[in-house]
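The following block was generated as part of the benchmark described in Methods. Ligand: glutamine.
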Amino acid sequence: MTGTDLPALSIADLQLLLRRREVSPREVIDSLRARIEAVDSEIGAYLSLDTEAAAKEADKANVDLPLGGVPVAIKDIINVMGQPCTCASKALQGYRATYNATVIRKLRTAGAIPFGKTNLDEFAMGSSTENSAMKTTRNPWDLSRVPGGSSGGSAAAVAADAAFGALGSDTGGSVRQPAALSGVVGFKPTYGRVSRFGLVAFASSLDQIGPLTKTVRDSALIMNAIAGHDSQDTTALNEPVPDYAAKLGNDLRGVRLGLPKEYLIEGIDAQVKAAINAAVNQMNSLGAEIIEVSLPTTEYAIAVYYVLATAEASANLARFDGVRYGYRAKNPRDVLDLYGRTRGEGFGSEVKRRIILGTYVLSSGYYDAYYLRAQKVRELVRRDFARAFEKVDALISPTSPVPAFKLGERVADPLQMYLADIFTIAARPPIAQTVIHKSSAQ
Ligand code: GLN
């Protein structure tokens, strides 16, 4: 179809053209590839693209399926068989996935075409994508700023019309925060809604896959495809999946929305405050009742998260030892030298910081004081939310206390970076199903 800027379309609008046979899936892939070629040298959203495989899939696509012929970009921490899966780490440079994640299988069943692996903070640890060992991703709205993270490549690709939609993963904000900083829609599903089989684990009691899209409807369409039970992930909920798009477009009469009083504190950027106020007014004018609620444990949420997430990461990342897959140090003297140098050379500094912190809080002398106590406070945080949800249907909250910041501005100060996760890290399931046992390390 001449005259239409295909890559600028939402998924829903693209589908209309595909179903009416006004464009072919092949034309869609070709126009998207041209857009990526035009903009991605500046933005750096993608780590790899397999155009040939995508073109083959496009030629076979059934456009009458729910996402028939729609290309979807994938964060490079989700396994797509035959494609690289680097987790933006030197530890997995050159590694290719040997199987498909369940979300990839489900996207294909819905007719979508996984196309392109996007940049991230190494092993999804970070909030700016600056911890990638591969490249810098820039915010398409202002190239001197970060796109957010860790799913910054997915967010930037969608914001730059270099993806129709993308998958990210969210442990403590990694879908929501980059979506907010890049001006797109990010949806973190409830833990268990989407199978994590084939997602490289960071903190297993928190990790969840979710969509980044141009519109809310598009997120609903992707959720309809990827949600649901999976026998390969024991944490995947065995509950019916609603039609996420069914209620879109209704007004908000009868809906009660909670505004946590601890969230509108000093230190929130004036632009963020203004955006929240505008959203509250809009929802109010659509009929929603706005009610103040309290989440008193907010001040502990960051500490709890950074104890539990690092503990789980230290256990999960033990597998990258140079024997099973990925990077292997050259000419090891013995097996300890192999492990030590492989990990020392393969991991970046943020990943090492977290492994060290996580190993420390699990060590026998500190397990009770840090890990176990954090598990208990996690339950208190959960109860705050449960109490709030007795009064309201949903909460309104900023995603990040600050808008997109400059590249290089915060990366040297990890604590400052962690503190900005305050609004996203408390959304979590009850006490970890995976309780890690005390380590014998001293
Ligand atoms: N920014 C948080 C962190 O660095 C969240 C990351 C994520 O959700 N993967 O841990």
